[in-house]
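Propose amino acids for all 368 sites.
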């Protein structure tokens, strides 16, 4: 069987190494995973209470438009429910956007070091990705605007960016939008926006009210801790949502995920706790890195990209042997960097202790 020609050379997405796999391979009983930007605090306990009510409905298909979740989310965000669409994770929404708007002969502009699924979906649909280098780990919006042509259909911006964790500001985004021609859609992937504490971060939902070219992507996988349920969404103009619904699979957001997301929205205290704990954990990691003289990007997400000064795969393997799973920057385009998810205080301490050994760095005894 011969596959589509556009698949030639297209890499298979490699997620963070699973806990179970590392335990089996290395014979370790205790392993921590700080590789996939998952929430170390799990999810709200309200999720499990709510799912008991769904037990009798497992034989029934879900409502494809997720009306109850849509109403609850629209109230939480302060947007029209008709402007919301759900996916089997934000990954599927990315796929739907590419399927609806990309085709042979058109281009999409994106950063050269960003979430790889944008490029994958562009290529699958026959489009041409136009990559623009990051500038000190941040989207170079001036260069991206210059890369736009009559063939450009979409500009993808991950904010905070994965893997650098950096952000563009409200002022920068507004100036960028003013430069773009009317035919260009701008997809703002805000998977990590709940973790941001920088007041300069864009209010994209307000901008969307004046600019129908914007599409805002968000997810329940990160701060809400529902990665296993696969539920993400986008907010966009009704005309864009109509086109996306044409390519959406009929029952893409499953019934249990919809119920879990509704319960998650009701527990904003949990979200606030996770946000504050992440800020403290990020500072815990970055303070030690600074003491060692190791550079890292100023992350606004729940991960830190650090330059170890050594081949990333070697440091990754050293940490793995000590039961700490991180993400090697080799596959991310950063051959001497590691991307580490911010864990809880104990997990962060264990990561730093293991990294100190792998890099032969001094580490003061930490308490907690």
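Proposal:
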């Amino acid at each position: 069987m011969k596959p589509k020609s556009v698949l030639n050379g297209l890499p298979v997405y490699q997620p963070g190494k699973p806990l179970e796999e590392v335990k089996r391979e290395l014979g370790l009983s205790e392993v921590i995973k700080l590789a996939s930007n998952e929430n170390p605090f799990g999810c709200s306990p309200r999720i499990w209470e709510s799912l008991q009510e769904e037990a009798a409905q497992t034989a029934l298909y879900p409502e494809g438009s997720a009306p109850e979740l849509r109403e609850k989310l629209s109230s939480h965000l302060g947007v029209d429910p008709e402007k919301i669409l759900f996916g089997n994770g934000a990954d599927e929404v990315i796929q739907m956007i590419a399927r609806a708007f990309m085709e042979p002969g058109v281009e999409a502009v994106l950063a050269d070091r960003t979430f790889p699924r944008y490029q994958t979906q562009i290529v699958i649909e026959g489009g041409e990705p136009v990559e623009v280098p990051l500038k000190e780990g941040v989207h170079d919006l001036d260069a991206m605007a210059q890369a736009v042509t009559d063939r450009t259909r979409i500009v993808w911006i991950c904010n905070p960016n994965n893997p650098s964790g950096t952000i563009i500001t409200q002022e920068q985004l507004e100036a960028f939008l003013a430069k773009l021609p009317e035919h260009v859609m701008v997809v703002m992937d805000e998977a990590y926006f709940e973790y941001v504490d920088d007041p300069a971060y864009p209010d994209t939902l307000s901008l969307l009210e004046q600019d129908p070219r914007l599409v805002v992507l968000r997810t329940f996988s990160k701060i809400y801790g529902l990665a296993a349920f696969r539920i993400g969404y986008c907010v966009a103009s009704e005309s864009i949502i109509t086109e996306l619904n044409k390519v959406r699979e009929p029952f893409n957001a499953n019934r249990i995920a919809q119920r879990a997301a509704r319960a998650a929205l009701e527990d904003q205290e949990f979200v606030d706790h996770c946000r504050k704990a992440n800020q403290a954990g990020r500072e815990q990691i970055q303070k030690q890195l600074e003491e060692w003289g190791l550079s890292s990007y100023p992350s606004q997400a729940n991960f830190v990209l650090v330059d170890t000064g050594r081949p990333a795969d070697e440091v990754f393997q050293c940490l793995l042997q000590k039961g700490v799973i991180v993400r090697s920057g080799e596959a991310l385009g950063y051959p001497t960097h590691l991307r580490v998810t911010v864990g809880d205080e104990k997990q962060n301490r264990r990561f730093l202790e293991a990294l100190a050994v792998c890099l032969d760095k001094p580490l003061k005894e930490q308490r907690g």
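The chain has a mean pLDDT of 94. The longest helix spans residues 268-292.
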